[in-house]
Design brief:
Number of helices: 11
CATH architecture of the largest domain: 2-Layer Sandwich
Helix content: 25-40%
Largest sheet: 8 strands, antiparallel
CATH class of the largest domain: Alpha Beta
Length: 406
């Protein structure tokens, strides 16, 4: 039996593990945590950081490994490509490309050279060089060049605030660099794409809704599908995606594209992208809405079985995943979820923090504890379902208090 190593024990990788098992693989999960969500679903577990490329390489070389894969974690791309290249294993990208896709400095540089619309930016290694922004339009955004999940991302309104947030943002960067770029007004769109024969097939366009509780952070609280927005922007975004595919030499697999759409100017601006599947249960979202299992398609493409994706009609006009966060505490239990699913208020729920997990903050997307998936034919019905959920869902801590943020 062939061995597959899965990098990262996130909730989304439970589905990846099931797919690999169905394809006949013996699955070993690697993660730095003691008990990540996907641990119990793997055949074996190795506690090891997926960011430690050399350690993963040494481990994989001893296990007669046939596949090293991650589908929903940006930084795992680099390790997957590195180990696969060293051991001669199949991978959808080479190591050099993975370095480019996980570094916002390299990514923005190539986009600029290839006339792909993106905001002006500067790379900082020292906090005292704020004179570089004398000709920039505020507000700005500061973030690490090589992190994900909203880690270290902040909105900047004055030059002084660059100094205020520099150290925190820098702390999330392996290369000790931050990128500061002009903030672009508009809808933030997350586009899930599959690349076939070097061409983009748009699977789903959703809008990222950010938290209003902390205006300085960019924590995603909703992923919203509106069929009419998708119909209006699909061809324009496909054109941008194909320019990215050509500029970066991508040939197959998923592409997660984040961009801003300014309705007044009818203009799209690329924030960033990655050659991976979107996290936060997006694989389920796509499958339920469009009938495409993007993780299975990804695995197939890596193994040389090219999926055939055709024009897909959405099953609903509106849908969303609402992400819930908590105050600081240790989660004891969740209440109300099964009842909401039984009565059809929600289609599904996703647990990102298992009971027993300790929550320290609610600033990053990776801090989310629950996802609730809704579908509807109109926005009014969707709002009513959310109102019902808000009254019933509770997250109880070890002291018996409801710590859910509302």
């Amino acid at each position: 039996m062939n061995t597959a190593i899965v990098l990262g024990g996130t909730a989304d990788h439970i589905h990846l593990i099931r797919i690999l098992k169905n394809r006949g693989f013996y699955v070993i999960l690697c993660d730095y945590l003691d008990n990540p969500p996907a641990k119990q679903y793997a055949d074996a577990y190795k506690q090891i950081s997926i960011l430690d490329k050399e350690a993963i390489l040494e481990f994989a070389s001893r296990k007669n490994t046939a596949l090293v894969i991650a589908t929903c974690i940006d930084q795992a791309l680099e390790t997957s490509a590195f180990v696969s290249e060293k051991l001669g294993l199949p991978c959808h990208i080479n190591y050099q490309t993975s370095l480019t896709l996980t570094n916002k400095n390299s990514m923005k540089s190539i986009m600029t050279k290839n006339s792909i619309s993106t905001s002006r930016y500067v790379i900082l290694k020292e906090s005292n060089d704020i004179s570089k922004f004398d000709f920039f339009n505020y507000p700005l955004v500061i973030k690490p060049v090589d992190a994900n999940s909203s880690k270290g991302v902040f909105l900047i309104n004055t030059p002084e605030e660059i100094l205020d947030f520099f150290d925190t943002s820098m702390s999330y960067s392996k290369t000790k660099e931050v990128i500061v770029e002009e903030f672009v007004e508009g809808k933030e769109l997350s586009v899930d794409i599959f690349i076939e024969n070097g061409k983009a097939e748009i699977l789903m366009i959703t809008e990222n809704i950010k938290t209003k509780n902390n205006p300085k952070s960019f924590t995603i609280v909703e992923s919203v599908y509106n069929r009419y927005i998708e119909d209006n922007l699909k061809e324009s975004i496909k054109g941008i995606a194909n320019k990215i595919i050509q500029a970066f030499g991508l040939t197959t697999g998923p592409l997660l594209l984040q961009c801003i759409y300014n309705e007044k100017q009818d203009k799209l601006s690329v924030i960033e992208f990655s050659n991976r599947v979107g996290g936060g249960s997006k694989y389920f979202f796509i499958n339920r809405l469009k009938g495409v299992d993007i993780i299975d398609a990804f695995v197939g493409s890596v193994l040389g079985n090219k999926p055939e994706l055709k024009e897909i009609t959405p099953k609903y006009n509106f849908a969303k995943i609402k992400y819930l966060y908590t105050r600081k505490g240790i989660i004891e239990e969740y209440k109300g979820l099964e009842n909401l699913k039984r009565n059809g208020t929600i289609i599904e729920y996703f647990i990102y923090k298992k009971p027993g997990s300790e929550v320290y903050e609610s600033l990053k997307s990776s801090d989310r504890c629950i996802g609730l998936f809704y579908v509807s034919e109109n926005e009014g019905e969707l709002r009513k379902k959310e109102e019902v959920s808000s009254r019933q869902v509770k997250v109880i801590d070890r002291n018996g208090f409801d710590i859910l943020l509302r």
